């Protein structure tokens, strides 16, 4: 249920206008705009009754991500985690500012920022919904491409990556993923099934 469709539609339009500036292309569209559209499509499939906060959060998950490149941070795991944490804050603040322009109240803005900044996974329903949807989108649309970029990864490394993704998801999302809710990347199905069965 959308409390104020005018505010909601305006916020989505502002998110999309921001992501339409992405110079990186994917299937002939700005990369992050396509990603945001896939996130919205997935939440519609997985959780059609999802809250307004969750719907806003999934649309803003990667907002203007290209403006904060990984190269801005040091190499290695500490640098990677610093980049990821910085991204969460950046996405949350950007989404909040655009929601403010769309006329949203501060309470709703703070709820969306909490989800987008990945606070309260497993305890905050909107954050968990965002995590579920992002994992489902990754598996359906991006896991195969990621695998192609990491040809040197061993099977054990891949099993670890899949298990970590799986552990982030709720039971409902896990069931959805393995009962036809998403299109699993065919080449990776044996590996995925092995991983989620415990190897």
Give short descriptive properties of this protein.
199 residues; mainly alpha; globular; Hypothetical protein af1432; two-stranded antiparallel sheet
Order of helices and strands: HEEHHHHHHHH
Arithmetic mean of pLDDT: 93
First and last CA, distance? 41 Å
| CATH architecture descriptor name | Orthogonal Bundle
Number of strands: 2
Strand order of the largest sheet: 1-2
Number of helices: 9
Structural class call reads: mainly alpha
Q: Measured on Cα atoms, how large is the radius of gyration? A: 17 Å
Largest sheet: 2 strands, antiparallel
Helix proportion: 55-70%
CATH topology: Hypothetical protein af1432
Tally of structural domains: 1
Globular, elongated, flat, extended or rod-shaped: what is the shape? globular
Descriptive account of the structure:
The chain is mainly alpha-helical. It has a single domain (5-196), classed as Hypothetical protein af1432, CATH 1.10.3210. 66% of the residues lie in helices and 2% in strands. It contains nine helices and two strands; from the N terminus they run H-E-E-H-H-H-H-H-H-H-H. It has helices at 5-19, 31-46, 52-60, 76-101, 106-116, 125-149, 155-168, 171-178, 189-196, and strands at residues 25-26, 29-30. The protein has a two-stranded antiparallel ribbon with strand order 1-2. Helix 2 runs antiparallel to helix 3 (52-60). The longest helix has 26 residues, at 76-101. The mean pLDDT is 93.
Strand and helix layout:
Elements lengths: L4 H15 L5 E2 L2 E2 H16 L5 H9 L15 H26 L4 H11 L8 H25 L5 H14 L2 H8 L10 H8 L3
Antiparallel strand pairs: 1-2
């Amino acid at each position: 249920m959308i409390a104020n469709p005018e505010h909601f539609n305006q916020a989505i339009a502002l998110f999309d206008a921001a992501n339409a500036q992405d110079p990186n292309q994917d299937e002939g569209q700005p990369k992050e705009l396509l990603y945001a559209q896939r996130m919205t499509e997935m939440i519609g499939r997985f959780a059609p009754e999802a809250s307004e906060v969750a719907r806003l959060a999934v649309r803003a998950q990667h907002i203007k991500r290209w403006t904060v490149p990984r190269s801005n941070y040091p190499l290695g795991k500490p640098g990677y985690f610093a980049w990821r944490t910085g991204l969460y804050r950046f996405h949350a603040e950007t989404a909040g500012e655009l929601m403010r322009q769309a006329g949203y109240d501060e309470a709703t803005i703070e709820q969306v920022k909490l989800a987008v900044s990945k606070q309260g996974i497993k305890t905050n329903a909107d954050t968990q919904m965002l995590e579920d949807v992002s994992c489902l989108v990754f598996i359906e649309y991006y896991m195969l491409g990621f695998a192609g970029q990491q040809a040197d990864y061993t099977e054990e490394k891949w099993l670890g990556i899949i298990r970590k993704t799986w552990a982030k998801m709720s039971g409902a999302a896990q069931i959805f993923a393995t009962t036809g809710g998403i299109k699993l990347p065919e080449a990776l199905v044996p590996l995925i099934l092995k991983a989620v069965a415990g190897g």
